Amino acid sequence: MSKFSELINGEKPVLVDFFAEWCGPCQMMKPILTQVKSQIGDDASIIKVDIDKNPSVATAYHVQSVPTLILFQKGQVKWRQSGVMQAADLTRIIKQQSNAK
Questions:
Q1: Domain that includes residue 90, residue range
Q2: Is 20 a catalytic residue?
């Protein structure tokens, strides 16, 4: 968990995709996140956390369904939502946070 804490405590926003291999909607998020990353470049990081392999992290952030997306900055939760989202919406949310200093 220390590596995770290190990542989410930085200045740069970090979008965490809590997912599971068996989850159909989670599979739908893969190309969407790839698209978001190409649009935001280095303005933010995107990491995926498998809830089955990292149950303590999922529990710590009260992840009850997958996919759950949480945007962190400086260790704080800036935004969160469960379910599949469109790339344009995610990009807009991340850009708003990275500009809100």
A1: 2-99
A2: no
Catalytic residue among 7, 12, 23, 47: 23
Q: What global pTM score does this model have?
A: 0.94
Distance CA 42, CA 32 (A): 17
Q: 74 with 9: CB under 8 angstroms?
A: yes
Rounded to a whole number of angstroms, the CA Rg of the chain reads 13
Q: Helix and strand tally (H, E) in the chain?
A: 4, 4
Tally of domains within the chain:
1
- Among candidate residues 15, 16, 26, 63, the one labeled active-site is 26
Query: How many Å is the maximal CA-CA distance in the chain?
Result: 37
Let me know if 17 is a catalytic residue: no
The amino acid at residue 86 is: Q
**CATH value at residue 31:** 3.40.30.10
Convert the pLDDT of each residue in 72-85 to its tens digit.
999 999 999 999 99
